[in-house]
Design goal:
By secondary structure, the chain is mainly alpha-helical. The protein is built from 21 helices and eleven strands.
Length: 533
């Protein structure tokens, strides 16, 4: 088994060259693994698919991973300069200011990691499609491939679509850049074709029928952005099947979705499985917490970061909304109850660390400024710098909110309000009357006071009243803050390239997708910059 796995890894990295460089297809090792080598053992075949799932941990929380890519450019989270002198080369500033280019690390990381996984998938699909009695497994792999292409579609738009058939040629071939509409069509057709064969059982951490329906629901929800055509009914149809037949349910306690042992959540449709002792590097507590906060959780490694909430977003919360508790705020204490202190500024050495809502500017903040990201439970006593919480990529609440948004956009605001109220009820258990929302409210603008902001003062005022369905955008923010949703939602609601927040000002509509990474452009003359770059 070890030898077989090693051969598959070698095969996959050869295929990566198809996307990023000039590759001799004669070297693509189609015959490295034959049916005689593998047999038809379901256990062996499932084991050989493990890398395409474990690679998701690196996609999500590898350094400059998907989380950062979606959140650092949004109006919810920022990583400002801190007085400890930690140098990031300006990458987080570029994300916040929307000044990135083709050399930006976060988009390049997604590109290389996604295509690295696609290598393995295409190699595996090419082998398995010639076997008997593996239809369900083959459908699973094709659906997972569509999921990776969904990530690329959303973030880059115009990407090469490479499949197992491209491994079968005899000539040197460099992939051609597909249009966004072509990538959309590929994802849709693949998922529709494999849907009847996909496993409908809840196999935790695996791509099943319901996870595939979520991918379809997502591309239909964003179809107007992707291809200029609305597909609200198609998105609703996917959610209706999940709701009727999937067997998922909202967790009574919102925060139960994010605890350390969250694999038994009834709400998680598709989860990325982390285990700090074996795989993945779920490092966000270290990236967001002040070094002194290590004593709060008895962490084995000192935190280094300062990612925090943008105050304008925090100001939109209802004080009774329990989802506000995903933000670590106020005076901080060690695990034994004793105060912990500031450490960067000698003048504050005897002052208790007190996370304040206020932050100064992207280029200048105090060490205590900004509510820190605490959505995922931080296990006490963790050695090293990773936690084991699994990350829900698709939750049942997400499915329901997709349906609610589509109903709202179809003119059925009251029906949408019923769903939104249902989502809000668990967040307002202590004040149930506040959970109720009316359709007319969802038609209103956002509570977010957009405009540039410094040291608690609005330098410019744009507001959010002019955002169509802005109140619904607010609800998406409360439910999915720090869950890599915000960039996509802001784009769909017309905010991402039109509004200012904190130190960010609009910097062109082309920012709704990232540029093709320079390393890929240099290696493949068939690729070109995205428009505007």
């Amino acid at each position: 088994m070890k030898a077989i796995k090693q051969k598959i890894y070698i095969a996959s990295f050869v295929f990566l060259g198809l996307v990023c460089s000039c590759t001799d297809l004669d070297e693509t090792p189609h015959d490295v693994l034959l049916q005689d080598d593998l047999g038809n053992s379901p256990e062996i075949l499932q084991a050989l698919t493990a890398p395409v799932y474990t690679s998701l941990t690196n996609v999500m929380f590898g350094w400059h991973g998907f989380f950062d890519l979606q959140e650092e450019c949004s109006d919810v989270i920022v990583t400002p300069a801190r007085p400890n002198g930690w140098v990031d080369g300006g990458t987080y500033r570029a994300m916040h200011m929307h000044t990135w280019n083709s050399f930006q690390s976060q988009p390049a990381s997604l590109w290389s990691r996604a295509y690295g996984a696609l290598n393995i998938l295409n190699t595996s699909i090419g082998i398995y499609k010639n076997m008997e009695n593996v239809d369900a497994l083959l459908a699973e792999l094709r659906a997972l491939r569509a999921f990776y292409y969904y990530l690329l579609l959303d973030n880059f738009g115009n990407v090469p679509v490479v499949t197992e058939e491209d491994l079968e040629g005899e000539e040197d071939v460099l992939p051609v850049q597909s249009t966004r509409a072509e990538v959309f069509a590929f994802i849709e057709s693949e998922l529709l074709e494999v849907m009847p064969v996909l496993n409908d059982e809840k196999v935790y951490g695996k791509m099943n029928r319901w996870a595939a329906r979520m991918v379809l629901a997502k591309i239909y929800l964003n179809a107007e952005v992707y291809i200029g055509v609305t597909k609200w009914d198609e998105a609703i149809a996917q959610v209706d099947d999940i709701e009727t037949n999937g067997g998922y349910a909202l967790e009574p306690n919102y925060h139960a979705n994010f605890i350390v042992e969250n694999e038994n959540s009834a709400e998680q449709i598709f989860s990325i499985v982390f285990d700090a002792t074996r795989s993945g590097w779920f490092h966000y507590p270290w990236k967001t917490l002040h070094p002194s906060s290590g004593a709060t959780y008895d962490l084995g490694a000192q935190p280094w970061g300062g990612s925090c909430a943008i105050p304008q977003f925090i100001d939109t919360y209802d004080a009774n909304d329990s989802r506000l508790n995903i933000w670590i705020r106020g005076p901080q204490f060690a695990s034994d109850g004793s105060p912990i202190y500031n450490t960067f500024d000698p003048a504050l050495a005897d002052v208790q660390l007190d996370y304040s809502k206020q932050i100064g500017h992207i280029d200048e903040t105090k060490e205590y400024e900004g509510y820190r990201v605490g959505k995922f439970e931080i296990e006490r006593g963790v050695s090293g710098n990773a936690i084991s919480n699994d990350v829900p990529f698709f939750r049942y609440a997400d499915a329901l909110m997709i349906k609610a948004e589509c109903l709202l956009r179809k003119g059925q605001a009251d029906a949408a309000a019923v769903i939104v109220t249902r989502i809000r009820e668990r967040a307002f258990a202590a004040s149930p009357d506040k959970a109720k929302v009316k359709g007319e409210e969802l038609m209103q603008g956002s509570k977010y006071n957009y405009g540039t902001y410094k040291n608690g003062v609005m330098l410019t005022t744009e507001g959010g009243a002019d955002i169509q369905y802005g109140r619904f955008l607010d609800e998406l923010g409360y439910e999915f803050a720090a869950e890599f949703h915000r960039r996509q939602d802001l784009i769909r609601f017309g905010v991402f390239t039109s509004k200012s927040w904190l130190s960010h000002i609009p910097n062109g509509d082309h920012r709704s997708i990232f540029d093709i990474p320079q390393s890929a452009l240099d290696a493949n003359p068939n690729l070109s910059h995205n428009p505007g770059y």
